[in-house]
Design brief:
Elements: H1 3-16, E1 24-26, E2 29-30, E3 35-44, E4 46-54, E5 59-70, E6 72-82, E7 86-98, E8 102-113, E9 117-129, E10 133-144, E11 148-160, E12 164-175, E13 179-191, E14 195-206, E15 211-223, E16 227-236
Parallel strand pairs: 1-4, 2-4, 3-5, 4-6, 5-7, 6-8, 7-9, 8-10, 9-11, 10-12, 11-13, 12-14, 13-15, 14-16
């Protein structure tokens, strides 16, 4: 199974089998002694989707949870694929909006592997209070053919008293016979009509017998009509 085929399947599953608002969808496929487990939970104004697939003795585990309280809106999508290895995908979205506020949280996690171990974790949290806005988006994608690829993405936004906070976190780990590790954290906080935006991107790719990692952290805070923006990017690619 080629890497491009794995990417296509992962993206196809995450974009075309998404649940509509307030729905929960879980898929699980296993064959030839493989183990596949899918868990999807949703609370309030939220949608949650979990897929997993395993063949030829592979193990795929997919967990997705979404919570949308008050005026919060949460979407969570988790996808895991495995042929002969182990693929684990965890996605969580939590949005809480109260007192005339708006909170949005979108989390997407994908994992695919052939003979290796691929782990993908994605967390998006948004908290808004008193006419504020909090928007968080976290995306994590991990691919591996023969090695180990780990990807971890976290986006947190906190808005209060008219503040606007936006956090975007993207983490990609790609391994071809080697080990690639990517971890991204994006935090944004705004209050008293301040505006804060954080963007974090970490991409790591590897080759056989090489270990790579990408650690990215972006933090932005604004207060009293202030404006703050932080961008953090780290890319490591070897072919």
């Amino acid at each position: 199974m080629s890497r491009s085929f794995m990417i296509a399947l992962a993206l196809f599953a995450s974009t075309t089998i998404a649940a509509r608002g307030g729905e929960v969808v879980a898929y699980s496929i296993a064959s030839n002694g493989g183990r596949a487990s899918s868990t999807a939970t949703a609370q309030g104004n939220a949608s949650s989707v979990a897929h997993s697939a395993a063949t030829n003795g592979g193990t795929a585990i997919s967990n997705s949870s979404a919570v949308g309280l008050g005026t919060g809106r949460a979407n969570s999508i988790s996808t895991a694929m495995a042929d002969r290895g182990l693929a684990i995908s965890n996605s969580r979205a939590d949005a809480r909006g109260f007192f005339g506020s708006a909170a949005l949280a979108n989390s997407t996690s994908n994992a695919a592997t052939v003979g290796g171990i691929s782990t993908s974790n994605s967390v998006a949290e948004a908290d808004a209070r008193f006419n504020a806005l909090a928007d968080s988006a976290a995306t994590s994608l991990s691919l591996s053919e023969f090695g180990i690829a780990n990807s971890d993405s976290v986006a947190r936004s906190d808005g209060a008293l008219g503040g606007r906070a936006v956090a975007v976190s993207d983490s990609v780990a790609d391994a071809m016979g080697g080990r690639a590790d990517s971890r991204v954290r994006a935090h944004a906080g705004a209050r008293l009509y301040g505006s804060a935006q954080s963007n974090g991107l970490g991409v790591s790719a590897s080759r056989s017998r090489q270990t790579m990692n990408a650690r990215v952290t972006a933090i932005s805070r604004a207060d009293r009509f202030g404006h703050s923006k932080s961008n953090a990017v780290q890319v490591k690619i070897r072919r």
